[in-house]
């Protein structure tokens, strides 16, 4: 358990106690239900500690640390941005959240790195994103409130203009959106039960209906398109996967920063699939875009970056050979 491990580290490194103690806890925002759960977890942590160390902390103190963890834990992601664990990084936790971040978080093993997502101005506050950004304001705020105990008032959420332009008008289309949300739950349930083909068919129907009421570049479309791509790849339906990767590209370009792991990996997947389907022109176009982003973010030792560079070199060599032969 992370709490017990951290308390043992406190015993070995007094400085780490001060580092963690300075982090925000937002304890007053914790609901009674969450507080009750934390008290149970604190009791479990005490039972896992050596007796002398357990007696050094009260349940209330441990609940306070749990609140700190809740607000400051990082999802440790692999190079494909898939969460593989959680960790506490006090130095990195001093960065505030923004739904329009200027700094990205990348992991190399268990080490965390912070990378600028665009050119920075002198005196500009450095902000990261605590959550996945490919969703509308209501969904982002809900996740931040439940996961980090605060109401987001970043520039994107406070303004709301861009979000409105990228979202379905739920007031105008309330009945249909409720229906589509129910269908989405059914499609996800089918996926969890390994009924992938039926799930894909349902998501394709959802996408068709969404396109009738959504802006061409919209959050709801991106979420649905992403589900279609993942299912198509699992079913080896390359044509459908490529089609919906292309459809989601302008949405990703609008939502994510110019230098973002999410956008770079999107380009990489589209380029790799295009190469597999013998579309060398599109493969080169998107692999080059992926390289221009991920080369700025990932360390040179990254397996993903090395694989990307090898694939890009292969495509370049093929295109050069083809041009020479045609000439």
TrEMBL record:
<dbReference type="InterPro" id="IPR001214">
    <property type="entry name" value="SET_dom"/>
</dbReference>
<dbReference type="InterPro" id="IPR011990">
    <property type="entry name" value="TPR-like_helical_dom_sf"/>
</dbReference>
<dbReference type="GO" id="GO:0005634">
    <property type="term" value="C:nucleus"/>
</dbReference>
<dbReference type="InterPro" id="IPR046341">
    <property type="entry name" value="SET_dom_sf"/>
</dbReference>
<dbReference type="Pfam" id="PF00856">
    <property type="entry name" value="SET"/>
</dbReference>
<dbReference type="InterPro" id="IPR050869">
    <property type="entry name" value="H3K4_H4K5_MeTrfase"/>
</dbReference>
<feature type="domain" description="SET">
    <location>
        <begin position="4"/>
        <end position="131"/>
    </location>
</feature>
<protein>
    <recommendedName>
        <fullName>SET domain-containing protein</fullName>
    </recommendedName>
</protein>
């Amino acid at each position: 358990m992370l709490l017990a491990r951290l308390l043992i580290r406190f015993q070995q490194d007094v400085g780490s106690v001060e580092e963690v103690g300075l982090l925000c806890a937002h304890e007053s925002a914790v609901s009674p239900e969450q507080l009750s759960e934390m008290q149970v977890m604190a009791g479990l942590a005490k039972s896992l500690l050596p007796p002398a160390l357990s007696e050094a902390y009260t349940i209330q103190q441990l609940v306070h640390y749990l609140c700190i963890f809740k607000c400051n834990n990082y999802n440790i992601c692999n190079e494909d941005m898939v969460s593989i664990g959680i960790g506490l990084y006090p130095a990195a936790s001093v960065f505030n959240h923004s739904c329009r971040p200027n700094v990205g978080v990348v992991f190399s093993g268990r080490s965390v790195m912070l990378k600028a997502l665009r050119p920075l101005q002198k005196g500009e506050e450095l902000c990261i994103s605590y959550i996945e950004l490919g969703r509308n304001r209501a969904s982002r705020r809900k996740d931040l409130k439940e996961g980090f105990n605060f109401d987001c008032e970043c520039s994107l959420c406070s303004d709301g203009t861009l979000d409105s332009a990228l979202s379905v008008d739920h007031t105008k289309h309330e009945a249909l959106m409720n229906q589509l949300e129910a269908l989405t739950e059914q499609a996800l349930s089918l996926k969890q039960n390994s009924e992938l083909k039926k799930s894909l068919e349902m998501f394709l129907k959802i996408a068709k209906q969404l396109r009738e009421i959504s802006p061409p570049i919209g959050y709801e479309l991106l979420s649905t398109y992403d589900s279609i791509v993942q299912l198509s790849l699992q079913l080896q339906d390359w044509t459908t996967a490529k089609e919906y990767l292309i459809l989601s590209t302008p949405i990703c370009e609008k939502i994510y920063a110019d230098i973002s792991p999410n956008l770079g990996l999107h380009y990489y997947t589209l380029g790799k699939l295009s190469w597999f389907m013998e579309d060398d022109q599109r493969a080169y176009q998107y692999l080059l875009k992926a390289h221009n982003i991920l080369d700025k973010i990932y360390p040179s030792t990254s397996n993903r970056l090395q694989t990307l560079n090898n694939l890009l070199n292969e495509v370049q060599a093929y295109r050069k050979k083809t041009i020479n032969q045609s000439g």
